[in-house]
Amino acid sequence: MGRLRHRQPADVDRRSELRAGLDHDDRHLDVDRIQPHIYIAGLQSIPKDLYEAAAIDGAGGWTRFSRITFPLLSPTSCFLLVTGMIATFKVFDIIAVMTQGGPIGSTSLMVWYLYDTAFVNLKVGYASSIAVVLFVFVLPITFGQWIAQKRWVNY
């Protein structure tokens, strides 16, 4: 207890440096790493009273999952589905670091092609039209998921 109260200034400085380093490394939202945390938050938001009432009524594990857990996690699942789909269209860093478009363009996705066209070949107008096409691809997928979620998301 005394050790926590009497921290040295060097400890505080070191922690702020570490925190700054983490903020620098995690500037973008990495959907793959945050999805389990969001699901855990969704699971923790389900009231325990529902599970207790179902247990008293004699519901088994599968019934509790299919009638309580799955429906109450549907808003979380819909959110993660939409953000995950958008993140797949934004894959850039892995391609840039590992393959730079790959052998004979085998790993070249639309975002990498946009970057290559705009900043390497300096065709900014053409790259802008690629960005509009990317937007036109992502928008109907997002709206389709938004319309479909009205059928299976329970609020």
Automatic annotation (TrEMBL):
It is a multi-pass membrane protein. InterPro entries: ABC_transporter_permease, MetI-like, MetI-like_sf. Gene3D superfamilies: MetI-like. The keyword Transport applies. GO terms for biological process: transmembrane transport. It is found in: Cell membrane. The chain crosses the membrane at residues 68-88, 94-115, 127-148. Residues 1-145 form the ABC transmembrane type-1 domain. Keywords: Cell membrane, Membrane, Sugar transport, Transmembrane, Transmembrane helix, Transport. One of its GO terms (cellular component) is plasma membrane. Signal peptide: none annotated. It comes from the Bacteria. Belongs to the binding-protein-dependent transport system permease family. This is Multiple sugar transport system permease protein. It comes from Paenibacillus methanolicus.
